[in-house]
Amino acid sequence: MTRITAERGGKLRCKGWRQEALLRMLENVLENSENQKELIVYASLGKAARNWPSYRAIVDTLKHLEEDETLVIQSGKPIGIFKTHRQAPLVVMANCNLVGRWATSENFYELQDKGLIIWGGLTAAAWQYIGSQGVIQGTYEIFQSIARLHFGGDLRGRFILTAGLGGMGGAQPLAGRLANAAILCVEVAEERIDKRIAAGYLQRKTDSLDEALSWIAEAVSNRKSLSVGLLGNAADIYPELLRRGVQPDIVTDQTSAHDLLYGYIPSGFSPASAAAARRLNPAGLQAAAGVSIANEVRAMLEFKKRGAVVFDNGNNIRSQAAQYGVLDAFEIDIFTEAFLRPLFARAIGPFRWIALSGDPQDIRIIDDFILQEFSDNEIVSNWIILANSYVPFEGLPARIGWFGHKDRSKLALAVNSMVREGTLAGPVAFSRDHLDAAAMAHPNIMTERMKDGSDTIADWPLLNAMLNCSSMADLVAIHSGGGGYAGYMTSAGVTIVADGTRESDLRLRTALDNDTGLGVLRYADAGYEESLEEVRDKSIARVDISLHESIHAD
Ligand code: NAD
Questions:
Q1: Is residue 107 domain-shared with residue 229, that is, in the same domain?
Q2: What number is the average pLDDT over the span 126-132?
Q3: What is the reported pTM?
Q4: Atom of ligand 1 nearest to the CA of 168
Q5: Residue 117 belongs to what domain range?
């Protein structure tokens, strides 16, 4: 079968640019996937479509879809085309949502094996994945925040230990280097190491721990940045480092620890022997993965006791370890609460844009515009300068920038004008990660220890999706966790296309402002000061409940 890549250039295959944009986004997800043959994009099992017939049917439908129709997709399978209107989303989807009590990994695997459901990751089935570049600024901002909080603002001469060089974890070595640290990434699959080197995200590789440590030590003593991929198993390497008395400054892990069956490779297994055990002895494989994770997390806790900054980078590793007997696993901080919550409280999050023409120059023109128009936005300007020089494109040229309320629409409207005036080679799609202010309920990642205790309430992502449909977005998705994430999360995704028309001015402004507006209100409702400030400063329409209470009292 020919490898799928995203179409480039100005020729339309669909009846309009909005449909063509969504088709290219879907193709782009597969172009950037970890295992295209299985439609697996990232996060061990996150798929772009239910199966190949579903994929082909989606492609064919998008080619024929009218501007006043809506395609409905259930867990990666196209279900029907409905007559709606030109302001309605072109695509709505619900992926992997199980009813509360039944949302377990066992039920998920059973339904998956029957071909009834898929885990869509966050951005895979929602056709928003853009490769490791999609999380790289987030990972970089975590490192920067640690630098400010613990190391006088600078990671020069500091050693980061992590694991996992998959679709998302592959961002870690480059993010670590951009933060000026020496970063060691343990990865059990050699082809993943090679892929990150080929993509320009990783510098060196070795299968010798001694060699890796000597490179890291040299970089640390010269205060030089360096990224090293070490072929090995994190469950072996972390305890071995402790045994040798090697102490990193920062420790985390981004293996697919959330999934014991398809994700984390236990100690003593290769990816190939794990694949065989998955068929022959799935229960044994899961138990072995649980025990290995527990050993790795015990080592992480010991690094913490010895003075390292240790955090969970969003892969449920603490929950898994806790189930396998590590009762103090939650002594390890979650990255969102520890480092990013003040940003999310202002709805500043991982916004992204994709040049549908395939022309990298479009992204460079937008970079220049941002540096001019948002020069007082330190987070974004700093990032765009770095990204422009060091972050290689993967698939369709794209960029990520942590913009907040009103700034997202300001950028998108300016870009839409550039499309209209022909400054850019083609339309641009705007999207964001599901890990965004209004869009995710995940009590062990995004919403852990919320100020008001609202961690487990999934109303917010559902409201977010409904509001985005009402706000004329082009694609709206509701996801819940699959595989090891079953029962752990609900999230919403949105995509809006800047095709240069006046109609898309309206779509972009309405959908983007309402998306972040709800994000600010979600945190304001939970009592975060930054959000309350944002509500006042940016005049977000919040219902003043105290006013109603006093009227009632009268
Ligand atoms: P992936 O499945 O593409 O890659 C996981 C990698 O871990 C693979 O390369 C695998 O070989 C390696 N691995 C597995 N077991 C290992 C072990 N014992 N030792 C060393 N390497 C091992 O997954 P991904 O897309 O990179 O995502 C990784 C995790 O991060 C997932 O749990 C995902 O849900 C989570 N995630 C977090 C964020 C965030 O915002 N922080 C974003 C996206 C994904």
A1: no
A2: 96
A3: 0.95
A4: 26
A5: 91-129+350-538
